[in-house]
Amino acid sequence: MAELSFGNKVFSPSSPLVIAEIGTGHGGDLDKAGELVGAAAAAGADCAKFQCVFAEEIIHPATGFVPLPGGDSPLFDVFAALERDRDFYRHLKEMTEQAGLLFLCTPFGAKSADLLAGIGVAAMKIASPELNHLPLLERVASFRLPTFVSSGVSTLGDIERALGILSGPQVVLLHCVTAYPAPAEDYNLRLLESYARLFGIPVGVSDHSLDPVLVPALAVCHGASVVEKHICLSRSDPGLDDPIALDPKAFAKMRQAIARAALDPRSARAALEDEYGAELVDATSGTGRKVLAPSEAANYGRTNRSVHALVDIAPGDELTRDNTALLRTEKKLRPGLEPGQWSWILGRMARLAIPAGEGIRPEDVGDFA
User: Closest Cα to residue 107, out of 81, 95, 89, 91?
Assistant: First the structure.
């Protein structure tokens, strides 16, 4: 299994990197962020991860209310309320590193990627919905930084294309099931061994299941060098992902289970079978063949990036970078063309009227072949 290193620390299946995903759980408050970083460090995390959010880089206002772990929310407005400037992220980075943790943050477009590069981050993270955001991948690749990339709601071809772009000094592939929460039996953790053989890079898991032990520990048994899991102060807190996150006590329990699995994978698997039953453990291990997990399959093409209209576009209007963008549909708006076709349609004329926010389809574009 491939190793990854940061400074003088080396991580592998025998000593995995544990990432506490804080995301936007701080609510834009540095004091709350400090509490979360302190809790992550005390619970045994090696890294605290955040999200650098600018609403217009992610979704269109017409997306409206989106079902989230905490209930339906006006997601564009929620994201807009979380926007912060460069100094905020610089402070996040400083407090994280002062706590002895690696600072990691997810950009969602060129603006957030450039902000993170500008404050001198040591690594970056690509979220699953951005696996097909080709311009973002190219921008991040240009920084030549270690990059973690999640692979929820993806095909093997999607992963291969992304890794072909992210050919930097160190790329880590994180297996993920994009469901909130994700059923443990959907995880197919033998994929970690398949990915390690196929790509020859460090692999890990980004876990959205509710249990603190089964998926993280079993992932290490299958060769994970990285385990990422959401952390919160309380599942009743108002953060977007807090209802599926681990509180500090549960996160520490996960960290201990990971350590046991890293020390003796065979004994750890046997202990998991005793606790959870051999049938569930085997189902969670899966086949090692890449397929869309049942809990996420219906969302393929509906949660990642496609070409959308930023404003109402009339028949005969030219399609430009000012009136189109690569956005998420969030299962509310109709999907558009693949990101790889965006540059191809620029300069062409709209054949049909395209409402603001909706995906741009082949039939909407003149001379589309």
Answer: 89
Closest by Cα among 285, 296, 47, 342 to 151: 296
CA atoms of 267 and 337, how far apart (whole Å): 48
Report the candidate in 187, 199, 191 with the shortest Cα–Cα distance to residue 288: 191
Cβ contact 275:156 at 8 Å: no
Query: CATH assignment of 4-285, given 3.40.50.2300, 2.60.40.3600, 3.40.50.700, 3.20.20.70?
Result: 3.20.20.70
- Segment 30-51 shows an average pLDDT of 98
Give the domain 301-369 fold. Type Iii Antifreeze Protein Isoform Hplc 12 (3.90.1210)
Higher pLDDT, 358 or 9: 358
Q: Find residue 205's DSSP bridge partners.
A: 175, 227
The pLDDT, as a whole number, for residue 4 is: 87
pLDDT value at 66 more than 90: no
Cβ–Cβ under 8 Å, residues 162 and 132: yes
pLDDT of residue 8: 81
What's the CA gap between 182 and 131, in Å, rounded? 19
For residue 160, the one-letter residue type is: E
Other Cβ atoms less than 10 A from the Cβ of 307: the count is: 26
pLDDT band at residue 368 under the 50/70/90 scheme? low
Per-residue pLDDT, 1: 56
Kindly report whether the peptide bond that precedes residue 181 is cis, defined as omega within 30 degrees of 0.
yes
What is this structure's pTM? 0.96
369 pLDDT higher than 70? no
Helical (H) or strand (E) element with 72: strand 71-74
Instruction: Quote the CA–CA distance of 150 and 174 in Å, as a whole number.
Output: 5
Measured in whole angstroms, the distance separating CA 323 from the mean position of its chain's CA atoms is 27
Domains in the chain: boundaries: 4-285, 301-369
